[in-house]
Amino acid sequence: MTTRTVLITGGAGFIGGNFVRYALRTHPDWSVINLDKLTYAGNPASLRDVEGDPRYRFVHGDICDTALVDSLVPQADTIVNFAAETHVDRSLQDESPFVLTNVYGTSVLLGAALRHKTPLFLHISTDEVYGEMPPGASARETDPLRPRNPYAASKASADLMCMAFHTTHQLPVMAVRMTNNVGPYQYPEKAVPLFITNALEDKPLPVYGQGLQIRDWLYVEDACEALDLALRRGAPGQIYNVAGSNERPNVETARAILRILGKPESLITFVEDRKGHDQRYSLDSSRMRDLGWQPAHSFEAALEKTVRWYRENPQWWRPIKQGDFAQYYTRQYARRLPTKQRARRGIASPRRLQ
Ligand code: NAD
Ligand code: TYD
Is residue 209 classed exposed, middle or buried when 0-12, 13-18 and 19+ CB atoms within 10 A define those classes? Predict the structure, then answer.
């Protein structure tokens, strides 16, 4: 018997797909409707194993489509909004889809939830909304938002819209802000799957700048558990930070991947830095821990599981890397050009990056 029907948006993406699988596995009494536009980052192949489950339904569509959203929202008693444009580097090339999906799309979902009196709305957000953190500091939920790139600005705007709907309309909406997730089914433009798959192909790992920026890595199963707990025990109107507590400079992450794969460190190639690259993100997740959550995976365990998955599932990522991704890769990395001077400083030659 279904006790909860969850409308998951963006469930064909990395975290959304892992959450769809997690929800069906851990809650036999839940049904899931997955609304996904299947942008370049959405992949139906990530959910082949649940396609036959009678509790699962896929709807191909856009969260900006008010009529479609209005037809689906009354069928659910819970909304979990993962759908987003998510890659910082792409937001530096063109911010418009980020504003459309992340800000306007979220407001369409909020409006429908209000009209149809949806009992619970969980919005998925990011540590990036707080901006970069100085050494030793970790952001609390009450801290000001200081997003510094277009992706982060669009996510912060969506968070503000969620909280505005709670304040003005008492919509039962919560937000969870997470650190960088790692795990299976992540599109290989993001640092960890890019580094792993490049290493598997004996290609250079393009580390921005000196690789000294720090990110905090959270295994996606631990993230799913936190989201589940927020749905069951969280308070409407509340924001919850979720940290992996695995802060590492990027170059160390690249080295750890190479170590696990038994590949040489000479594959690490320092390339021109990302514009406005945030030095460090860090979250204080004591509020989430007070609900009874803590991450189960160390940095090493999270990376090892992730590396093993990519090693064992080339049929998932190879077709992606050979498709449109190849054009993106050239656009993003080939322009990090080698002049002779740069080559002397160890910056990659575009040929090495092909
Ligand atoms: P992803 O890029 O892997 O997947 C995004 C999914 O959303 C794709 O399936 C895509 O097709 C879908 N989508 C995009 N625009 C849509 C639209 N207009 N309508 C319907 N579907 C649409 O993203 P992810 O890494 O799984 O991130 C999921 C959420 O978690 C995002 O909101 C992101 O901001 C947030 N988040 C991600 C991380 C991380 O490390 N990946 C960390 C913190 C927060
Ligand atoms: P990314 O996975 O894009 O996530 P985010 O920017 O949301 O944190 O990048 C993680 C870190 O890795 C970030 O500091 C940028 C860096 N990075 C590289 O050094 N090289 C790359 O090719 C990419 C994509 C990212």
Answer: middle
